[in-house]
Specification:
heterodimer; A: mainly alpha; 10 helices; 3% strand; elongated; B: alpha/beta; Rossmann fold; 3-stranded antiparallel beta sheet
Amino acid sequence: MTATTEARPPALPSTLRLGYERTRYEARLFFRERDAVIFIFAYPIIMLAIFATVFGQDDAAIEIGDTTIPFAQYFLPGMVATGVMLSSFQNLAISIAVERDEGGLKRLRATPLPPASYFVGKVGQVLVTSLVQTALLLAVAALAFDVPMPSDAQSWLTLTWVFLLGTATGAVCGVGFSSLPRSGRSASAVITPIVLVLQFISGVFFQFDQLPSWMQQIASVFPLKWMAQGMRSVFLPSEAEALETGGSWQHAATAAVLIAWLVVGLVVGVRTFRWRRRDDG
Amino acid sequence: MRKAYGEKQAVDGLDLVVGRGEIVAVLGPNGAGKTTTVEILEGFRSRDGGDVRVLGEDPARAGRAWRSRIGVVLQGTNDLAEATVGELVHHFATYYPGARDADEVIDLVGLREKVRTRARQLSGGQRRRLDVALGIVGRPELVFLDEPTTGFDPQARRSFWDLVTNLREDGATVLLTTHYLEEAEHLADRVVVVRDGQVVAEGPPATLGGRTARQAVVRWHDEHGEHEQRTDTPTEVVGELGARYGEVPGLQVLRPTLEDVYLSLIGADEKPAVPTTSDEHDNEPTTTPTGAGR
């Protein structure tokens, strides 16, 4: 087997190639974690079904002048935004905290796997799962609840950039937050309430314009409100723009807030990331 | 090599040389500094002082190429729950240049029947074999095994030892920490006993502790009670006793076991400790941490 004479040691596999290997591995394993599949992947779809059914009884709808928006259509953008946040932020914050606690990160640190490949794998897994999740959510909305899909290229473009920027921001913040729980066991207990509160104050479960204005202002600090607003601009008719703060979809502000969190998350994440548990030397 | 945690000097001027192809066992009580030492050598922890070279590089600064030449089996972890044995070994093989064939490694560690089993469902011994598989799939020149058989039943331990012996036959150097004297005796070319962050003795298991610690003890009793004599020449002593008593009452000739020697070395026993170093090592050193500035 080692008959090669004086051969130069074979080159280390490239960072990208290993990022691809990690993505495949992580995506496959994600779907084996029952908790993750229910509370991260299926959650927005289940919630959409419940909300659309409960609030949409007797064809109840939101009326803006002459335009009526069925509840299923009104809640869809918030659920898409929630799905992106769960798949990126909640997923990574919990899974990395658990991996750190169980020694999985330490094991990887002892191998020649480049840290960049590990993170490429995480982001790749998030992209794969949230794409499938969003596609399923849209399919359920369109097929089961007759929610009209956007017909113009402009809306699909908006969907794309809000989805991608939201996913990136959520992933980076998830990595940053993964250092917060003291153990893997407490990770869900620490991260889930943060996500739940954001969902309630960001207009995912309620009509955002009907929340108290102080609550709207708090929500405006965080990315989820902006992601939901961006998604509303995609799925709601233009008449609904009048319900938004200042009567505008505020795309520029959405991009600015998401990018700000992306940068802050990146800086905090790089500074706080640990391969080992806190109590491990 | 030195390392302190707050007031506690965990590693206090520890010297260790491991030659290429050797199996060296580091023994010591809990808190002696074994794991700290090994984790400094693996590049996980920084050191406060001293010079460390592992495969010619300082582990604190070594990069991917160096990591591809070592294999690390950590103390028990409980990660990787939902992945199967086959998936894991094949996946980890992609990290390394010139990795072993993943299926060969699975055969080598005896997990062929478990190839489709998820890591969560493996028994403790099988789980540890998986850890070893992941540690050696990159064809490492140097393998670190940190307490690899803790919690094994005797049969699992035996087959694990065979696995380690196979590694050596493949040309790997093995640095092993263990609580089990029997394990060190069975596997190691050389045993290093660590106490309070220092090496208190080292040598092949058969001669550890030097001659005095290895003296035979001749015991017998007569009407004055129990007698005990330490000697290098038990046959002669027994001969004299035979001349005196005829049939010597309650005659016993005892050779100290590695465990007796070890216990005296770590001071767990009131017998005088006799720390001595034996044997020259003229092998090419692969790891040479040396204590500095004591």
